[in-house]
Amino acid sequence: MEMQKQKIGKWLLGALLILVVPNCLFWILEPKVSLSRGVFVAEYLLIACLYPLINRKLFITIWILFAVYDLVYATSSLFFMDFMEMVHALAKIPELALIDWLKWGGLLILFILIIFTLVKGLIRYEASYRIMHLRFLWPLIVLAGVVFFVSKKEIVSVPTWSVVKAVQHAVFVSTAKHNIDYLGSAAKTVFWQEPAAAATNKEALILVESWGLLTDQKLHSDVVQPLYELVQNHQYTIREGTASYKYLTQAGEFRELTGCVFHYYLVRDKWVKDSSLLIKKQEQGYHVIGVHGNTSKFYRRNVFWPVLGVQEMYFIEQLNTLQLPLCGSNEFRGICDTVINTWLLNNMNRQPDRKEFYYWVTLNTHLPLVEVHDEAYNNFARQWKEQGITENTLQMAYQQKGLFRDLAGKLSKPGSPKAHILLVGDHAPPFIDPADRKMYDANRVPYIELIPN
Q1: Do 51 and 22 form a contact (C-beta atoms < 8 A)?
Q2: Intervals of CATH 3.40.720.10 along the chain
Q3: Which residues of the chain have pLDDT under 70?
Q4: Quick one: fold of 181-452?
Q5: CB within 8 A of 8, min separation 6: which ones?
Q6: What global pTM score does this model have?
Q7: CB-neighbour burial class of residue 197 (10 A; exposed 0-12, middle 13-18, buried 19+)
């Protein structure tokens, strides 16, 4: 009987170790880093089963490589629809400054060293009690699989499942249609029906980078307040609302243009074209113009914009010929959004009688932000800091308010075009710190419709 108790005790201790060691570092990181990950990750149990079958150095290498993947997936899966989109984003990140490479490289090395130390400790325990083999681990593997497949992913997650799904969707495209998210579109609600004959022949959809729905309603009202000055001057009627969102900018574009979030490699499917707002505007006689202050190659906009209905495109490659000023961080530097405000309204005035639909994806509030610390910002931020609003949130709110102030000021000037405009957020800012992320609604973004009187 005593022997049986000892065996049970060793099994329980071994099971506890095999569950805690791979996950404990992530538990420590979670209060400071926004992670999308279960309490436990199932793959570590499967990797542990390889220990008796392969060389020890190879085992440690596989464990560390998976831990790095686990980290990347946990910090990124909230923002990308599948693994291939993560890979594309990583491959297209603009060149970082040397100090940034050193900082992130140092943190990665520290992470690897901690993982190495943990797995070595697990191997040392294995030498005495043999916990890393299938005969010991199969009950935990079965339990983890059951928990995962009954959709308790907040308890057990399987990061490699996204790789399997990505390959499946890319190779067997017909199955991918079962993985479309129908979120609806504020833009299609506003613009899908052809306007009355007396209405303006200039329309614009402005997708505002990282404009999330603030949980503090008073701060949200402060941010959009400049647009309401157009109401006070009786120039525009304003309607506000919110829309569902998932993932980052490309998903936001697909959502607003088609009502759905789907994989990039589906963009040429007939149903996408049939659902596209921009194709619909062409059918209504509008000339569709797209503008974005960064390169046409990021997110492959030079490929999918024409497919979705953009007939005339302006990116930094074209706008640079006008010698327009640049703004933003080194990572996402491009034509200043306030300058594109001017360009947009001037372009509308060039052919006032032509029906035109503008699609503009803003840029300068893309993370990382170039922070502002002038007197105007300090005056804006002071009252909100006293109410517990974080610095990163206030920087984002202040700069978005500046964009709205600039647009409202230019729309109120004599001679400005009377355009029907919808401003809508693509997603909440993808801050790393959970304290910043909780300042925004996790599922909704705001929109504001400007209707000329």
Answers
A1: no
A2: 181-452
A3: 1-8, 78, 80-97, 165-179, 197-199
A4: Alkaline Phosphatase, subunit A (3.40.720)
A5: none
A6: 0.83
A7: exposed
